[in-house]
Amino acid sequence: MPRSFDLTAESPTRVDQFHAAFADKDYWLARIAASDTGPGTASLDAFAVDALGNVSVATTVTLLRDELPRLVTQLGRGALKLVHTESWCRVGADCVQGQMSAALSGVPFAASGTAVLTPMNTGCELRFAAAVEVKVAVIGGMVEAFIGSQLADGLAAIQAFTTEWIDDHS
Questions:
Q1: E strand or H helix at 71, and its extent?
Q2: So where are the chain's domains?
Q3: φ, ψ dihedrals at 65, nearest 5°
Q4: DSSP tally for the chain: helices H, then strands E
Q5: What pLDDT, in 10s, does the model give residues 33-88?
Q6: What predicted TM-score, i.e. pTM, was given to this entire model?
Q7: Buried b or exposed e, range 84-105, using 16+ CB within 10 angstroms
Q8: Selected residue with higher pLDDT from 17 and 136
Q9: How far apart are CA 97 and CA 116, in angstroms?
Q10: Is residue 83 classed as helix, strand or coil in its secondary structure?
């Protein structure tokens, strides 16, 4: 049974600035370069923005087994590739909605989530709802809890990176 997580992060940046960053390929290349993959590798596999400003992105991160907790590495053999997709679109005049998914090659792991960026007096708020599922008896729940504990830090890091990137490119 999937484990659900609800997270919130705030930024002094406006919703339209976030959406503009998401629609910029240089943002994604910088975000990948700034991600902490350790000695692993990360790539931007797909990037598209349509005429309405809808953004679709796919990335792959190759994780080195010796950099991961044993709890995770015992789930599969060989190189672990995390394939991550995101899509972002405007909803109404001042909100942006996102869809995310992640899968780990050779491991019965799946994650998905929805995000909404809404305006606040001081910038914007990101509300993120995620579901993580690891279909392995006995340890699946522990791995789901571990991944969930990493989500809050990851979301805060992405929010901080995006805010800084926008400040540097405005």
A1: helix 70-73
A2: 3-169
A3: -55, -35
A4: 4, 7
A5: 887 655 568 899 999 999 999 999 999 988 755 555 566 656 666 667 889 999 99
A6: 0.85
A7: bbbbbbbeeeeebebebebbbe
A8: 17
A9: 4
A10: strand
* 16 has a pLDDT exceeding 80: yes
List the strands of the sheet with 95-104, edge to edge.
3-11, 123-134, 109-120, 95-104, 80-91, 55-63, 41-49
- pLDDT tens digit sequence for 85-98: 999 999 988 999 99
- In our burial notation (b when 16+ CB lie closer than 10 A, e otherwise), range 108-129 reads ebebbbebbbeeeeebbbbebe
Residues for the chain: how many in total? 170
User: Quick one: CA torsion of 14, 16, 22, 27, rounded to 10 degrees?
Assistant: -60
Percent residues over pLDDT 90 in the chain:
54
Question: What's domain 3-169's architecture?
Answer: 2-Layer Sandwich (3.30)
In degrees, rounded to 5, the angle at the alpha carbon of residue 95 between the alpha carbons of residues 89 and 99 is 40
